[in-house]
Amino acid sequence: MDKLKRKELIEQYKSKKATGGIYCIKCSVNNKTWLKAARDMEGQKNRYEFFFSTNSCPEPSMLPEWNQYGAKTFSFEVLEELKQGETQTDKEFAEDLEVLLKIWMEKQQS
């Protein structure tokens, strides 16, 4: 690969806008859920799949359920995706995700 093509690919990667969102990890045995926000939803899905395949718990707060019921009782579900705006900074995007997470937490409580 020549230097110009490599530089172009690096610039494309850097300028790529993220797709984040809100996801839920749920234990099917006791219906307990953990809501989280992620700036990179695809990366978060891959992370969960890795933890599942290695039988490692992805969240310290779910460790008791993970140990008691096993990895197969947990599922990963994307609740809502949010694309980063063209002019939106990373900080603004993270703030929007936090607001979205609060909205989903309120929905879950009612």
Summarize the structure.
The chain is α+β, with helices and mostly antiparallel strands and 110 residues long. It is 48% helix and 23% strand.
Per-chain topology:
Elements: H1 3-15, E1 19-27, E2 33-38, H2 41-53, H3 63-69, E3 74-83, H4 90-109
Structural key phrases:
single chain; 110 residues; alpha+beta; GIY-YIG endonuclease; three-stranded antiparallel sheet; 4 helices; flat
CATH architecture designation? 3-Layer(aba) Sandwich
CATH fold category name: GIY-YIG endonuclease
* Fraction in beta strands: 15-25%
Shape: flat
Work out the radius of gyration.
17 Å
Overall pLDDT: 90
Structure characterization notes:
This protein is of the alpha+beta class. It has one domain (18-109): GIY-YIG endonuclease (3-Layer(aba) Sandwich). It contains four helices and three strands. Strands 2-1-3 form a three-stranded antiparallel sheet. A hairpin with a 5-residue loop joins strand 1 (19-27) and strand 2. It is flat and about 55 Å long. The N and C termini lie far apart (55 Å). The model has no long low-confidence stretch (mean pLDDT 90).
